[in-house]
C-alpha cells in the first residue's frame, strides 16, 4: 500500500460522477498558469524550506531532549524517556501555516489587506504550531527565555511537554491561540466568533477529520449563515481529511470527493479539494507529489481570498449577494506526511499509526531508533539551522528578524515582513480589549412596590448596552430571547440570520441558533478577540455546554498566568426557567446542575449570582458585563414580582460590588 | 402571505438547478399512478379522517378542560386556565403517524413484515403522539383509567399537562416512547440505536427542524454509516422542515430544495421531498392541497420501505451494496397546519406564532376565543366521535378494538389490525429485555503479586461477554478502545464502520465514532429496546454528554414508576485517564466533573464505583453489566499495578454485591 492509496478514500460511491463533480471548484488552469510563471510565480523554495524546518522542529520536540538540531550523530541517549505529542496532524498544520504565510506576504503591500488569525481545531498538533511560532519569532518575542539561537531552539525543543515547557496541546500560553486544545469540536465556531464585527480580519481554521465527527463541528459548518459580510470578517475553513483518527478511518476521510462535494455544497460553501498526489502521475516521486500539491494549495488559498473579497465587496457596496457561498478547502494530505513510511513492516505514514508517536520504541537501540535517525536527517537540519546570525539573508527589519538568521533565510522568507501580521502576534488575539460602555444601572431600576419581571428589567438595560456598543456587544441565545423576556433588545436591534431575507444584511446584534455549542464557540471567539457578549438560556439547557465552559475556564486561568496576554471580558450566562421557579415546563426541562460546576471552579474565575429581585438583577448584570477574565452565572426569573431592595439598598449590598 | 408562501423557503440559492435537482428522488409518476387507481389505491378517506381526529384531540388537549368533544357549543368556561403544550409540530407528527400506520397496514398480511417503532425528536409534540396513541388503543391498554368512551376521552383531554395527567413532553409514561423529551438533538441517534441487531425492525424518526440545528443531530445524520444491513434494521428519518422554531426561521427551513438535496446526499442518503402545495396549483383549495400531499407522502413512505428492503436483501444474500444510500424524507408542511390561519391580523399557521399555544388569550371572550371555537369545530368532532360503541364499522378483532368504536371507524381503519404492531404496543419498546450472559468473573482475575492493568483485565472479561452475547451486546467508544486498554475485544470482534471496506459488513461489536453524543444516543436506543452496552471513554470527555445522561436518568426514573414497562439493562460507563492518574495527557485533558453529576442523582438510579485494583475492577464491571434500570460510573485505571484483593476477598467485599 503506497502513501497515495492511504490518502485516497475507499471508493466508489454510487453518486452520479458527472453531475456531482461539477459542484467542485476546479482550479487546475490557475495552478498551471502559476507553474508556467517564472518571476512573480510561486515561491516554491520558500514554501518547501519552511515546511522542512517546521516539520523538523515539530518532530524533534516529540523525540529529542538533547542534540535537538542534530549537531552530532543521533544517539539513543538523545531521545526523550517519555515520548509525548501527536505527530499525525503536524505536517498538515505546517502546510496550511506555510500557505497562509505566503498568502499574507503576497498581499502585504496592498492597502487594507486583512489581518489573519490561525485557529487549530486539532489542539494535539501543538508541536507544529509551536514550531511555526518559533520560526516567525513569536515564541522569542513573548518568551525571551527561548532566544533565537541554536541554544534557544534546542532548549525549546527539549522543553516541549516537560514541566515548565509548552504543553502538548495548544493553550493560552501559545501565541495567537484562541482555543484550548483537548476537547474537540469547537474550533470552527470559535473561528467564526473571532471575525464577527472585525470586517478586516480573516481566520484560517483547520478542522481535523476526527474532530469533524463531533456534533459541535457538524453543526458549526452552518455558522457562516450568521456572518453578515458587510460588518464582519471571514473564515477560511480547511477540513484536514488525513483519513484516520487514533485507531480507525474517519467519516470524512472515508467519504469520496463526490460525497464531500455534496455535503459541503449543502452546507452552503463553494468547495475546492486539495489532494496529495492527485495532480501528479502515480509513479511520481515523493518530491514531485510534494511540489504539485504546493501549487494546488497556493491557488486554493488565493481563490478563497478572492472569493471572500467578492462577497464582502458586494455587501459593503450595498448590493449583498443572496445566500453567499463562502469558500472552503478540503485538504487530503497523508497523516504523518514526511514521517516514517513504515515501521516493523506496517504502514505508518498515511495511517492511524502516525496519529500519536509514530516510533514509540525509538528510545532504545533497534529498527525504530534507526528510522527516527534517518527520518530526522531527511529534513537536512544542517542546511536548515546555522550557527551564526545570518543578517545578509534574513531581510531583517527588526531585532527579532535578525535573530531569525539562525534559521536559514530560505525557510523564513515566506513569513510576513510586518511583525504585527505574523499570526502569533496579531493584536486581536491577545490585546484588543476595550471596556464595554454601560449606562447607569440605576436608570433601569423600578419602585419597590411595582411588580416587574427580573428579566424584563434586565432586558431594558441590555437594550441600552446594545445602543451604546453597536459593534462590540452581541447576544447569543438558543432561540429563547423573547421567551426569556429579553425582547426589549428588539426595540433597538434584530436577529441576524443571513439565510432569511427578513434578517439578512441588517447587522442585528442577536443571534439565535438552536445549538448551544455553536453559541458558546461564537461567544468565546468574540470575547477572546476583545469584545463582549451575553448568553441567556433556560437553566436546563445551558448544561449542554458545561464541559466547554470548563475548558474555557482553563484557557482563562492560563491566560491570567501568561504575562503578555491582555484582559478579556467576562462571559456572562443568565439562566431562566429554573427548577425552583418553573415558568411553564415540567420535569423534562429541569436541570439545575450547571451551578454545581461553577461552584467547583476557583472563585476568581467563576462567580454565581442569585439576585432576588429586578433591581438587584439589573445591578448584577451590569456588574457581570463589566467584569474581566472570568465567567459569571446569573440565575434569572421571568415572572413579575415586587422588588425587595431600593436602588440605594442594592448599591450598598454585595451585589453591586 | 399565504400558507404556501410560509412553507416555501427563502429563495433563490445560486446552486445550478438542473444539476442538483437530479439528486432528488422524484416520485411524481408513482403518485400519479396511485391517484389513478380505484380499488386498492390510497385509503385517502382513512388518512384524512385519522388526521382530523388526531389533530382535534391534540388541539383539545392544549385548550379544553371541559366539553372536550364539543358536545355542546364551546364556552369560555371550557377553556383551561393555564394553556400548555406545543401545537406547531403536532399536525406534522400526526401526518407521519397516519402514513406509518397506513404503510404497516398495507403490508400487514405479508410474511416477515418488519415491526415499526416511532420516535419523536420534538418531544414537545406530545399532544399529537398522545392523540394517536389514544386512537389506536395504546393509552387505554396501559392506562385503563382512560377508557375508550366519550367520558374516557374527555377525561384524557382534560388531564393533559395537569397534575396526574400526561406531561407536555414525551416521556417514559408514553407508550412506545424511547426518548425523553426536553433537551433536543438526540432522537436520531436513539432511533439508530433502537434498530441495531434488530433486523426486522424499522424506526420512523421525525426530526424537527429546530432540533436539526443542534450538533448532536447534525452529526447523527452520519449514524447510518454504522448500520450493517445484514444484522440490523433500518431507520426512516423524516426531517420535518416546517420552517420556524419558537421565534425565528430554522436553518433547514431556510434552505431551498437544492441545498437540502446536496446536504443530505452528502450525508449519504437518497432524498425525497414531500412539500405541501407543491403538487397542486397555487390557487387550489386547502382541501386540494391536503389531498395532494397525502398521495406524495404515501408513495414516499412506500418508496422508503422498498429501498430499505433492497439494501437489506442485498446484504442478507451476501452481496452487500457498497456505501448503501438509505432513504430519507424531507417534509415541508406548515407549522400548525389546519390551525388558525391568522390572529389579530398576524399570520399564525405556517409561522413561528403557531409554535406553542397559537391563541394564548382564548380563555377570555374575544377574537381568540372565537377563533378557537371555529378552529375546533372545523374538524367536525360530532362526525368523529360517537356516543355508542360502533361495532359494525370497527372491524374489531379484540376488546380494545371494539372500544375504538367511539371514534368513527373511518378515522381508525388505517390503524394496524394486529395490536402488537401498533406503534404504542410494540414489544421492543417496553418488554424485550433478556439478561446478559456473563462468564464467571473470577476466571478473569489475577494473582495479587502480578502487575496488571485494571483495564486490561476488564478487557479480557469483556471479550468473553462479546462471545457469549453475539447479537445482544455492543461497545460504544469515541475512538479510544485501544487507548483505553480494552483491545482484547479485538481478539473476538472488530470495529463496525460501513464506509470503510475493511470493517464493512462484518458485524463488528465495537463502534468508534468521535461523537460522544451519537454514542450515548445509540447506547440509549440499544438498551431501551432490551439489549446491553458499555461506554468507555476518557474521564474528561464523558462529561460532554452529562446532560444527556441526566435526561436518560429521568426516563429511567419514570420508567420505574410506570407499571407496564419491563426492565432494561443498566448503562455502564468506564472512565480512564483520570485527573488523579494522568496516563499521558495534561491540563487540557483533565475534568473529573461527571462524578459530581452522578453523586447528585438518586442512589437507586446512579452508582459510582472506584475499584482499586484489577480483580475488583473485573468484579465491578461484571456487577454493572448485570445491573438493571440504572446508570453506573466505573473509574478505571490503565497502568499496571498489583492487586490488593484476592478474588475471594473481592467476593466478600461490597464490590461484588
TrEMBL record, chains A, B:
InterPro entries noted in UniProt: THDP-binding, Xul5P/Fru6P_PKetolase, Xul5P/Fru6P_PKetolase_CS, Xul5P/Fru6P_PKetolase_N, Xul5P/Fru6P_PKetolase_ThDP_BS
Protein name as annotated: Xylulose 5-phosphate/Fructose 6-phosphate phosphoketolase N-terminal domain-containing protein
MF GO annotations: aldehyde-lyase activity
One Pfam family matching this protein: XFP
Boundaries of every Xylulose 5-phosphate/Fructose 6-phosphate phosphoketolase N-terminal domain copy: 44-388
SUPFAM superfamilies given in the database record: Thiamin diphosphate-binding fold (THDP-binding) (SSF52518)
GO biological process entries: carbohydrate metabolic process
Coiled coil: none
TM stretches of this protein: none
Signal peptide location: none
Organism: Cryptococcus amylolentus CBS 6039
Amino acid at each position: 500500500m503506497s502513501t497515495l492509496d492511504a490518502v485516497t478514500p475507499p471508493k466508489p460511491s454510487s453518486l452520479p460522477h458527472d453531475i456531482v463533480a461539477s459542484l467542485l471548484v476546479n482550479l487546475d488552469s490557475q495552478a498551471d498558469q502559476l507553474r508556467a510563471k517564472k518571476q512573480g510565480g510561486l515561491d516554491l523554495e520558500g514554501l518547501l524550506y519552511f515546511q522542512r524546518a517546521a516539520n523538523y522542529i515539530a518532530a524533534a520536540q516529540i523525540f529529542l531532549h538533547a542534540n535537538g538540531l542534530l549537531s552530532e550523530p543521533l544517539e539513543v541517549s538523545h531521545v526523550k524517556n517519555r515520548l509525548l505529542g501527536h505527530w499525525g496532524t503536524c505536517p498538515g498544520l505546517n502546510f496550511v501555516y506555510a500557505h497562509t504565510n505566503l498568502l499574507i506576504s503576497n498581499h502585504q503591500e496592498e492597502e487594507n489587506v486583512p489581518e489573519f488569525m490561525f485557529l487549530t481545531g486539532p489542539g494535539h498538533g501543538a508541536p507544529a504550531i509551536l514550531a511555526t511560532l518559533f520560526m516567525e519569532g513569536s515564541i522569542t518575542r513573548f518568551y525571551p527565555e527561548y532566544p533565537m539561537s541554536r541554544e534557544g531552539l534546542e532548549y525549546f525543543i527539549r522543553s516541549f511537554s516537560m514541566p515548565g515547557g509548552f504543553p502538548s496541546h495548544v493553550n493560552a500560553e501559545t501565541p495567537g491561540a484562541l482555543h484550548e486544545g483537548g476537547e474537540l469540536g469547537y474550533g470552527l465556531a470559535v473561528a467564526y466568533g473571532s471575525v464577527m464585527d472585525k470586517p478586516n480580519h480573516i481566520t484560517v481554521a483547520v478542522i481535523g477529520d476526527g474532530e469533524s465527527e463531533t456534533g459541535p463541528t457538524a453543526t458549526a459548518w452552518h455558522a457562516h449563515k450568521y456572518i453578515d459580510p458587510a460588518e464582519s470578517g471571514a473564515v477560511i475553513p480547511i477540513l484536514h481529511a488525513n483519513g484516520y483518527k487514533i485507531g480507525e478511518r474517519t467519516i470524512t476521510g472515508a467519504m469520496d470527493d463526490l460525497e464531500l462535494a455534496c455535503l459541503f455544497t449543502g452546507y452552503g460553501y463553494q468547495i475546492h479539494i486539495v489532494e496529495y498526489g492527485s495532480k501528479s502521475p502515480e509513479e511520481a516521486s515523493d518530491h514531485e507529489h510534494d511540489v504539485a500539491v504546493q501549487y494546488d494549495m497556493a491557488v486554493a488559498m488565493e481563490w478563497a481570498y478572492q472569493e471572500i473579497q467578492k462577497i464582502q465587496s458586494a455587501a459593503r457596496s450595498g448590493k449583498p449577494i443572496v445566500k453567499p457561498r463562502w469558500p472552503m478547502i478540503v485538504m487530503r494530505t497523508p497523516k504523518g506526511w514526511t514521517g516514517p513510511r513504515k515501521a516493523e513492516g506496517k504502514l505508518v505514514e498515511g495511517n492511524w499509526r502516525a496519529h500519536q508517536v509514530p516510533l514509540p520504541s525509538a528510545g532504545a537501540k533497534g529498527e525504530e531508533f534507526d528510522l527516527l535517525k534517518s527520518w530526522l536527517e531527511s529534513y537536512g537540519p544542517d542546511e536548515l539551522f546555522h550557527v551564526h546570525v545570518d543578517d545578509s539573508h534574513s531581510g531583517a527589519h527588526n531585532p527579532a528578524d535578525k535573530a531569525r538568521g539562525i534559521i536559514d533565510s530560505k525557510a523564513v522568507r515566506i513569513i510576513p515582513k510586518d511583525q504585527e501580521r505574523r499570526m502569533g502576534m496579531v493584536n486581536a488575539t491577545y490585546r484588543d480589549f476595550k471596556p464595554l460602555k454601560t449606562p447607569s444601572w440605576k436608570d433601569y431600576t423600578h419602585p419597590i412596590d411595582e411588580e416587574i419581571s427580573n428579566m424584563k428589567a434586565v432586558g431594558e438595560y441590555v437594550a441600552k448596552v446594545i445602543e451604546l456598543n453597536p459593534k462590540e456587544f452581541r447576544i447569543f441565545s438558543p432561540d429563547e430571547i423573547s421567551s426569556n423576556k429579553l425582547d426589549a433588545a428588539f426595540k433597538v436591534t434584530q436577529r441576524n440570520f443571513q439565510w432569511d431575507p427578513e434578517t439578512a444584511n441588517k447587522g442585528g446584534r442577536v443571534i439565535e441558533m438552536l445549538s448551544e455549542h455553536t453559541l458558546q464557540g461564537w461567544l468565546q471567539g468574540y470575547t477572546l478577540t476583545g469584545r463582549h457578549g451575553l448568553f441567556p438560556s433556560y437553566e436546563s439547557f445551558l448544561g449542554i455546554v458545561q464541559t466547554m465552559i470548563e475548558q474555557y475556564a482553563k484557557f482563562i486561568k492560563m491566560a491570567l498566568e501568561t504575562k503578555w496576554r491582555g484582559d478579556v471580558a467576562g462571559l456572562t450566562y443568565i439562566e431562566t426557567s429554573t427548577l425552583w421557579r418553573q415558568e411553564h415546563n415540567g420535569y423534562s426541562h429541569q436541570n439545575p446542575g450547571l451551578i454545581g460546576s461553577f461552584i467547583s471552579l476557583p472563585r476568581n474565575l467563576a462567580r454565581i449570582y442569585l439576585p432576588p429581585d429586578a433591581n438587584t438583577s439589573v445591578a448584577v448584570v451590569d456588574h457581570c458585563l463589566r467584569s474581566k477574565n472570568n465567567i459569571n452565572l446569573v440565575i434569572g426569573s421571568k415572572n413579575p414580582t415586587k422588588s425587595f431592595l431600593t436602588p440605594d439598598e442594592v448599591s450598598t449590598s454585595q451585589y453591586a460590588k
